[in-house]
Specification:
This protein is α+β, with helices and mostly antiparallel strands. It folds into two domains: about 70 residues; about 45 residues, no CATH class. Helix content is about 35%, strand content about 15%. The protein is built from five helices and four strands; from the N terminus they run βαβααααββ. The chain has a four-stranded mixed beta sheet.
Length: about 140
């Protein structure tokens, strides 16, 4: 079950996001991946799910047309995950969800959309090592 941590300033945000022990090589290594959203009220949904309540019926024609009109060699493999990754990189709604290992990249995505500056952003932290539960670090500053 996710739990929320509310922070009020940049230093508090960095303190919570970088509360990571150093590994055996003296570097900070975390089992967490991060996703920043411009509003704490938004749920974790893929762009395809936000586009349609029946995403399976939308994905096939979107991906077929993307593949059809892509430049030769632009999709390096015929495997589905490669097609989806390249399509998402070019802005096509897909079933994939972007995560990062960098808390500061997640902070960027939680704060860069000017039309949402009046909302509190959120950074989702998911432990891919399986030791912790998912945490939402809500950036409670008005941007």
């Amino acid at each position: 079950m996710p739990h929320d941590i509310i922070v009020k300033d940049w230093s508090g945000l960095m303190q919570h996001l970088y509360d990571i022990p150093k590994g055996r090589h003296g570097r900070y290594r975390s089992d967490f991946v991060y996703r920043g959203l411009a509003s704490k009220d938004w749920s974790l949904e893929t762009s395809l799910k936000r586009l349609s309540p029946a995403p399976a019926g939308v994905e096939v024609p979107l991906l077929r047309n993307f593949t059809k009109y892509a430049k030769p060699g632009e999709i390096p493999s015929s495997h589905l995950l490669f097609k989806l990754a390249v399509a998402q990189h070019h802005g096509l709604p897909t079933r994939l969800m972007d995560w990062t290992v960098s808390p500061k990249v997640a902070a960027h995505f939680a704060t860069f959309e000017e039309e949402h500056y009046d909302k509190d952003g959120v950074i989702w932290c998911a432990d891919v090592g399986g030791k912790e539960e998912t945490t939402r670090v809500a950036h409670a500053l008005r941007r």
